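R.M. (postdoc): so does anyone remember the format we settled on? I'll just put the structure tokens first.
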């Protein structure tokens, strides 16, 4: 029933106020993680006390100004980088007819990006008016999906301000940004961006009172992967927390001194403690997955398709076999037909060729420490707590992986998207809605199986990606990684865009309980015992 949360959110809580090479350019990786570092169990209060505090929250009336935003959120998330928040009231928009007309003119569907560029150029000498058009109460708030995507892609902070210093509120942190030579940077010299739901002003005091709650802060403090609002007052909200192990609990959160914090979590203290302990293992693994994906992107292992593949022949997968032989023979290069390929990159990192599903298994295992040793070391693999090589399957063949993961009680767990929700990406609005309806079955670390017609040859192909980030409010995957020609980290829309006739059909997950047990045994130094029945627990 978790997939009904978005409907509940709109009705109750929006209160007031095959894996062929692709040729799409790489999208930049997501913003640095706020992290899911989970502090000691200090936020839980006695059950009766927490329930009593919640009973004191007097819900505000429904704010109809947020309805369209909530309805559009799945489509916005699929195409746009946003800061996850719960709005307490709708950010105020200008009532000036001229400002409204300029804003309305941005809504041109696929041409919205051009419209935003034209407006920025037109008002380059009148940035105050541009802020009135594009900002709502200082927020980059937008409920039109195409306009939202265009704003995040096109808009620079220097487009909005002539001042040399501005302040940006994002994820509970107000940062001072400076513009020394044409572009704003933070105090560490990194280029400063503006994302949907950021709040920004040239006057720091303007950011003193927030009209939202920061979900990144709640996620960090609790270890939950989903935070769904149930009711709220002006400065407090009751939310439902969903933990990686499936445990759910209500929590009370509040805004104090412009920062969102957790007051208490309602429920049995032992169950909450167990959920938080499990969450620590989960988020440790996810952080390792993200770092591993970044390393793969930097090392650029090639796609496992011979450069001189004979037309009409399918030779995907043969290069890795040749690479493997060369690696254990301490070779630095190997040949396949007339072409030469590298065994290591310039820094001595092993770069085994990958088909798309290799990238997933390599990332899973390498994130646990299990990976090929570098150049000049003894050939072999370092030890880690995940090693799926014992499983009785052809792990390089997506249909085989789907088959074994369909058996209940296995290490790999499969979820099938309902047939009615297998919507081709080219029907973007419907695709986003279908993804939202199935978000209850998706989380970081999952493998997504994409299948359908590829327009290059109009034949059905599989592709696979791994989920690196999801939106805590809706559960929709926002950032994925995969190898479809070369390793890339990008948005879910970018991963789907090169074959828009394909759809999401399956999800495969490594059993979380099994990962926890393996990690605990590995950390104790115990020998890792593989299940006898190749893949069954």
């Amino acid at each position: 029933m978790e997939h009904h949360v978005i409907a509940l959110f709109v009705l109750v809580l929006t209160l007031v106020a095959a894996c062929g090479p692709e040729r799409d350019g790489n999208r930049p990786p997501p913003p640095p993680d706020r992290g899911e570092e989970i502090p000691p169990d200090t936020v839980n209060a006695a059950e009766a006390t927490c329930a009593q505090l919640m009973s004191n929250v007097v819900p505000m009336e429904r704010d109809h100004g947020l309805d369209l935003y909530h309805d559009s959120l799945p489509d916005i998330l699929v195409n746009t980088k946003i800061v996850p928040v719960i709005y307490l009231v709708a950010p105020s928009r200008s009532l000036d007819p001229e400002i409204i007309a300029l804003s309305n003119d941005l809504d041109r569907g696929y041409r919205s990006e051009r419209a935003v560029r034209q407006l920025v150029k037109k008002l380059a000498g009148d940035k105050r008016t541009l802020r009135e058009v594009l900002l709502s109460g200082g927020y980059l708030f937008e409920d039109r999906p195409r306009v939202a995507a265009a704003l995040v892609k096109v808009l620079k902070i220097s487009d909005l301000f002539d001042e040399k210093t501005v302040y940006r509120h994002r994820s509970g942190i107000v940062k001072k940004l400076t513009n020394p030579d044409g572009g704003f940077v933070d105090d560490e010299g990194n280029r400063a961006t503006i994302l949907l739901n950021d709040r920004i002003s040239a006057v720091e005091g303007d950011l003193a009172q927030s009209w939202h709650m920061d979900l990144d802060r709640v996620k960090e403090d609790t270890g939950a992967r989903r935070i769904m609002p149930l009711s709220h007052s002006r400065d407090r909200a009751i939310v439902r927390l969903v933990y990686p192990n499936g445990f759910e609990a209500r929590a009370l959160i509040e805004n104090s001194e412009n920062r969102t914090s957790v007051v208490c979590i309602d429920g049995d203290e032992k169950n909450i403690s167990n959920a938080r302990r499990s969450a620590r293992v989960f988020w440790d693994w996810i952080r390792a997955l993200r770092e591993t994906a970044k390393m793969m992107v930097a090392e650029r292992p090639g796609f496992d398709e011979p450069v001189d593949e004979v037309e009409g022949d399918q030779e995907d997968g043969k290069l890795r076999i040749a690479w493997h032989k060369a690696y254990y023979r301490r070779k630095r290069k190997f040949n396949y037909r007339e072409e030469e390929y590298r065994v290591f990159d310039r820094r001595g990192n092993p770069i085994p060729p990958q088909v798309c599903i290799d990238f997933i298994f390599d990332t899973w295992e390498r994130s646990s420490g299990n990976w090929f040793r570098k150049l000049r070391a003894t050939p072999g693999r370092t030890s880690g707590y995940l090693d799926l090589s014992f499983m009785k399957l052809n792990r390089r063949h997506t249909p085989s992986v789907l088959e074994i993961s369909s058996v209940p009680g296995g290490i790999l767990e499969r979820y099938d998207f309902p047939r009615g929700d297998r919507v081709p990406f080219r029907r973007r609005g419907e695709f986003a809605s279908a993804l939202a309806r199935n978000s209850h079955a998706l989380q970081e670390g999952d493998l997504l199986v994409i299948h359908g017609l590829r327009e290059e040859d109009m034949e059905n192909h599989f592709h696979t990606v791994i989920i690196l980030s999801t939106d805590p409010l809706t559960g929709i995957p926002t950032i994925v990684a995969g190898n479809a020609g070369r390793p890339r980290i990008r948005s879910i829309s970018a991963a789907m865009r090169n074959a828009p006739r394909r759809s999401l059909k399956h999800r495969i997950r490594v059993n979380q309980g099994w990962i926890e047990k393996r990690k605990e045994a590995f950390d104790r130094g115990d020998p890792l015992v593989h299940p006898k029945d190749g893949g069954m627990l």
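R.M.: ...and that's the designed sequence above, right after the tokens. Also worth knowing: The two ends are 27 Å apart (CA to CA). Residues 1-18, 21-36, 40-47 have pLDDT under 50 and may be disordered.
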